[in-house]
Specification:
The structure holds 2 protein chains of 2 kinds. Chain A is mainly alpha-helical. Chain A has one domain. Chain A is built from 13 helices and no strands. In chain A, helix 5 packs across helix 7, helix 9 packs antiparallel against helix 13 and helix 10 runs parallel beside helix 13. By secondary structure, chain B is an alpha+beta fold. Chain B is 16% helix and 30% strand. Chain B has 3 helices and 7 strands. In chain B, the strands form 2 sheets. Chain B has a 4-stranded antiparallel beta sheet with strand order 2-3-6-5, with no helix packed on it. Chain B has a 3-stranded antiparallel beta sheet with strand order 1-7-4, with no helix packed on it. In chain B, strand 5 and strand 6 form a beta hairpin. The N and C termini of chain B lie far apart (67 Å). The chains are: A mainly alpha, B alpha+beta. Chain A: This is Tubulin polyglutamylase complex subunit 1. Chain A: GO terms for molecular function: microtubule binding; tubulin-glutamic acid ligase activity. Chain A: Pfam families: TPGS1_C.
């Protein structure tokens, strides 16, 4: 039977071979079987699922990076000649964990939690460490890396780390790890929003100190009201933070005092972040 | 909040036990009191008051026409006193109340019942304020992020000050 040439892309050699003439019976079976036994099929399936979950802007580089990070290379398969030192291994692990953590935005809760689990496992793997599990030192390193890569100012990062860091020798359980990761990423977004807010307040090239303080005080008031568990506090906060109330607060602040100095961006961000950090639960 | 007492007919406490009440001497510790409301139709039950006489546990079964306490028809109070020390127990001075004729709920939060009087921003003409809509949008997002972190608190503990049992008092006393 003549083989027809089809103008399809060579997706998977096995399926194409199946569509060809049936005279190739034995060869077809062994190709599919070979791929399955080598683990290629399941690995490709996992890779495609990851792409679908993350929906990156550039899927092909994403896939390339994904395979790179799987750490498949061993000396026997032509990878690095010598096994790398302990410190390098740890850096690699942290890098890999970071990559997993950045796959989904924290608001995509299920995907984010999955990625946190994978990152935790990646860091806890025994490898050449004496004891399996995540130690406090690696956890603290990871927190600092996330904040540094997110370009959060040091004055904001260190009070947060004081609250959520663990001591170097402590074993970090998964729940604490998850909370720490979530807090870091949410803080980075909070600082970004505070920055955008400063831009709005800074319209004439000078952010009036009275106006900035009034807005921060209103936010603090809305957060304080939330120490009770009623759902009505969301409505109450919403009305306090609506445009009318904020306009009134800003207006009153300008009338109250005569000073006209400006508040700098760093000071504004630090004050805003302290409102956030106050609501973070400390570890230990 | 006003309340109106509902006239009720309380059928006597019946001790539940196996066998004939008259011939078998026993104190089962379970009493049932049935309450009907023959004169009042189905009503919304607001409050039950009573004076307890050595009852330990109380269960209430309600026969009603709709969900919640709307349109209550009958009530059954099941009293339990498992201790043999209290052979006699009951509820005294049972009274039932429903909503008063007009009871505006006084539990409005202040933002609903006392809306801020409309104040015209005084300085609007003199000095331009930053756009309140944009400010509000950013501040609300910041509020939401903070609330999320507060709500997501983990209950896990690092166990920093947990001891692993080697400070047991018995072991210490051997030194």
């Amino acid at each position: 039977m003549a083989e027809k040439r089809r103008p399809t892309a060579p997706v998977a050699g096995a399926s194409e071979a199946r569509r060809a003439s049936p005279a190739r019976g034995l060869a077809t079976e062994s190709e599919e079987e070979f791929l399955r036994q080598a683990g290629v099929t399941s690995m490709l399936r996992a890779a495609l699922l990851k792409v679908l979950e993350a929906r990156p802007d550039e899927p092909l580089p994403f896939l390339a990076h994904y395979f790179d990070n799987l750490g498949l290379r061993s000396p026997a398969n032509g990878g690095a000649g010598e096994p790398p030192g302990l410190l390098l291994l740890q850096q690699q692990r942290i890098g890999r964990a970071l990559w997993h953590l950045r796959l989904a935005h924290h608001s995509q809760r299920t995907a984010f939690n999955n990625n946190v689990s994978v990152a935790y496992e990646c860091l806890s793997a025994s490898g050449r460490k004496k004891r399996p599990g995540l130690d406090g030192r690696t956890y603290s390193e990871l927190l600092k890396r996330i904040c540094r890569d997110g370009e959060a100012p040091e004055e904001i990062v260190s009070p947060l780390l004081q609250k959520i860091q663990c001591r170097d020798h402590e074993a970090v359980p998964f729940d604490i790890f998850r909370y720490g990761m979530l807090t870091c990423f949410v803080l980075l977004e909070f600082v970004a929003r505070a920055d955008a807010l400063y831009e709005v307040l800074d319209d004439s090239g000078q952010a009036d100190r009275r106006v900035c303080q009034a807005v921060l005080d209103t936010l603090e008031g809305a957060l304080l009201a939330g120490d009770f568990e009623a759902p009505s506090r969301y409505l109450e906060a919403g009305s306090q933070l609506g445009p009318d109330c904020l306009a009134l607060a800003m207006d009153r602040a300008l009338l109250a005092r005569k000073s006209n100095s400006a508040m700098l961006r760093d000071e504004f961000l630090e004050k805003a972040a302290s409102l956030f950090i106050a609501k973070v639960r400390p570890v230990g | 909040m006003s309340r109106v007492q509902v006239p009720c007919h309380i059928k006597g406490a019946v001790a539940l036990q196996v066998g004939d009440v008259r011939t078998v001497q026993g104190r089962p510790g379970v009493l049932v009191i049935d309450v009907t409301f023959p004169t009042a139709g189905p009503f919304e039950l607001q409050e039950i008051t009573f004076k307890n006489y050595y009852t330990a546990f109380l269960s209430i079964r309600v026969r009603q026409m709709l969900c919640d306490m709307d349109k209550v028809l009958e009530l059954r109070l099941i009293l339990r006193q498992p201790s043999p020390l209290w052979l006699n127990f009951t509820l005294e001075e049972l009274q039932f109340f429903q909503h008063g004729p007009q009871s505006p709920s006084s539990a409005f939060t202040k933002w609903l019942s006392h809306p801020a009087p409309y104040e015209q921003p005084a300085l609007l003409l003199q000095q331009a304020l930053p756009d309140p809509d944009k400010v509000s949008s950013e501040v609300q997002q910041m509020w939401m992020l903070t609330e999320m972190i507060r709500a997501n608190r983990t209950t896990a503990r690092i166990g920093r000050f947990d001891v692993d049992g080697c400070y047991d008092l018995n072991l210490l006393s051997y030194t």
